[in-house]
Design brief:
single chain, 9 helices, globular, four-stranded mixed beta sheet, alpha/beta, 21 strands, nine-stranded mixed beta sheet
Length: 432
């Protein structure tokens, strides 16, 4: 155990209006305005022996190339082992394209933005590291429900809201990590304004209530099959008012949990990381051809019926998505090996489990239930992005999430690989 030193910093990463937005194949145009700014936030922690870093950005995903670039910069400039640096995205679907679904990442504006983004993530880390000061640490849990299981209306969700607080030497709260599992898709494909979605509203409300330079860091959990209650199944007709409302609900619970939690100056920080390789078989070209054929027929039918231009534009965008999916799957080898990193950051009886994608809530709940550390939280979209991580049953049932595409590198065993790796590391760290 050692005396905690910590600090949180943030920097704005809002891209220029006109940049393509990520997350929806049905978007018909690049961004046309700005509703609220996007931020990258970093928390640096030290217990006299070990320094750990958590970085979270208001973007859809962070490619592994950016994650590794940030880690390399942090190691080169600060001497911190890459295993000790967790880099995650909030998964807003109203931020810049970082996955290549709506637009290619080779577009000049996106390519330039990604370079600047990597520099910002490293820079905000340097800021937090160099301002570390004596601090205290606490944790608490609340319950709130702003999401539903989009595959099964009566299916499981994770209502737990975790709050990890950091106070300064005077006992004043200066930062908090908020963890909750729900897709940030209040704003759907028709929205063309840049926004951090409900996590942004939550953080602004939380920071406004605590004041005094307080920093709220939102981490998304096992949200692979969980949509906000403003959605109707997979449809996302929500408004900015809906995002404000759901973010405010989370902020209210986070304030309550923080104020009820107790803190300690003494901490023990441990980190762990394990890279597993998943082997994907022959790419599903036939399935991709079938999906493309169906969308062509759907679009032709809409044209025959004289559908509104906005509906035609949306399906034309979807058609381009299926064309690109088929083109890229045809270029894939018959066997593809994909690295998958599962990372654990432990502070006393708290564990953050980083997974590089969209873990199904059922698996996240199981990891929490079986973890030897009573305050275990999943941090999704961390350490890169592989795709969806469903249950085996979901593959039997079919649907959107288990469908392999050029960006969704999923397979029936992926959820079990993540779960086994997470629990193995949690057991090891707990034993130590």
């Amino acid at each position: 155990m050692g005396i905690l030193r910590a600090w949180a910093s943030k920097v704005e990463i809002t891209p220029p209006v006109g940049i393509p937005l990520g997350g929806f194949a049905a978007r018909t145009a690049p961004s046309q305005g700005l509703n609220d700014g996007l931020y990258a936030k970093a928390l640096a922690l030290n217990d006299d022996r070990t320094t750990a870093i958590l970085i979270v950005a208001d973007v859809l995903t962070l490619p592994s190339e950016i994650v590794e670039g940030v880690r390399a910069s942090v190691r080169r400039n600060l001497g911190i082992n890459p295993t000790n640096v967790m880099v995650a995205a909030t998964h807003t679907h109203s931020g810049p394209e970082t996955l290549g679904i709506f637009a290619s990442l080779e577009e000049p504006l996106l390519r330039a933005y990604m370079k600047v983004l990597e520099a910002h993530l490293a820079g905000v880390t340097f800021m937090a590291f160099h301002k570390m000061a004596e601090a205290s640490f606490g944790v608490g849990k609340g319950r709130v429900r702003i999401g539903f299981n989009r595959r099964k209306p009566e299916g499981p969700v994770d209502e737990e809201l975790g709050v990890i607080r950091l106070d300064n030497a005077l006992g004043v709260p200066k930062a908090a990590i908020v963890n909750y599992s729900c897709h940030p898709v209040v704003l759907g494909s028709e929205n063309l304004f840049i926004s951090a979605d409900y996590p942004g509203y939550m953080s602004r409300a939380f920071e406004g209530a605590l004041g005094g330079g307080f920093t709220s860091i939102f981490t998304n959990g096992a949200a692979g099959d969980v949509n906000p209650i403003s959605c109707k199944g997979y449809a996302c007709p929500g408004s900015f008012r809906d995002a404000h409302r759901l973010g405010s609900i989370l902020a209210g619970e986070a304030i309550k949990v923080l104020e009820e939690s107790e803190t300690s100056h003494e901490v023990c920080i441990q980190t762990s990381s394990e890279v597993r390789w998943i082997v994907l078989g022959e790419p599903p070209v036939v399935q991709a051809e079938h999906s493309l054929k169906e969308e062509k027929e759907r679009l032709e039918e809409l044209r025959r019926k004289g559908a509104p231009q906005e509906d035609l534009a949306r399906h034309e965008a979807i058609l381009r998505y299926y064309e690109r999916n088929l083109e890229l799957l045809r270029k894939e080898p018959k066997e593809l090996k994909v690295p998958l990193e599962v990372q654990v950051l432990r502070i006393n009886d708290v564990a953050l489990v980083g997974v590089p994608g969209e873990l199904f809530v059922e698996i996240g709940l199981e990891i929490k239930a079986k973890s030897p550390l009573k305050n275990t939280f999943i941090v999704g979209y961390a350490g890169g992005y592989v795709g969806y991580m469903p249950t085996r049953k979901a593959f039997e049932e079919g649907g959107y999430e288990p469908t392999r595409t050029w960006w969704n590198r999923t397979c029936p065993e992926i959820g079990e690989v993540v779960k086994e790796s997470a629990l193995r590391q949690l057991e090891t760290l707990s034993a130590n």
